[in-house]
Design a protein that fits this description.
mainly alpha; elongated; Diphtheria Toxin Repressor, domain 2; about 160 residues; about 0% strand; about 80% helix
């Protein structure tokens, strides 16, 4: 006869706290982000309510309730959904930094980057890109508002999103 291994109270408490932490992450998400996750409606509503609570005690009780709800569910799909959300944020941050770098290099007159972008993005309008870079360079030299620089950034960002 195989005996089922019982978990210690400490292990159960660690698991409970881990679920509560996951619930806290859910509370920090916006209602739109929560809708994208495949969560039971009761858990979504509890997370949205907890996010709106301002009093510490009420918020703490709501987080404990979320932890209770989480114990009834399989936490693995929720954990994976949160990880996918984090990866999306990392990709977005990388794209933003890449676009900034390209813009700064183009404004600085980097012709090699211009050629690289032409090779990498076949649908690029190289004339428009050159004009935006030139205008942004002139604005920077004359210390004027960076209207063309912002337009260049938007154009480069649209290339990355394709």
């Amino acid at each position: 006869m195989v005996e089922k291994e019982q978990k210690s109270r400490s292990q159960l408490k660690r698991e409970m706290l881990a679920l509560q932490k996951m619930g806290e992450r859910l509370v920090k998400l916006s209602p739109a982000q929560l809708e994208k996750l495949d969560l039971p409606s009761e858990l979504k509503e509890a997370a949205i309510l907890a996010g709106s609570l301002k009093k510490h005690g009420a918020r703490r009780r709501q987080l404990q309730y979320i932890g209770t709800l989480m114990r009834r569910l399989d936490p693995e799909p929720i954990q994976k959904a949160l990880e996918r959300l984090d990866q999306g944020k990392e990709k977005e941050a990388w794209a933003f930094k890449q676009t900034e770098t390209w813009r700064d290099r183009l404004v600085g007159g980097d012709d090699e980057l211009m050629e690289e972008l032409n090779r990498r993005f076949p649908r690029i309008d190289s004339q428009q890109l050159s004009q935006l870079a030139l205008s942004a360079r002139k604005e920077k030299e004359r210390e004027r508002p960076l209207k063309s620089s912002r337009a260049l950034f938007k154009y480069l960002r649209s290339l990355l999103e394709e």
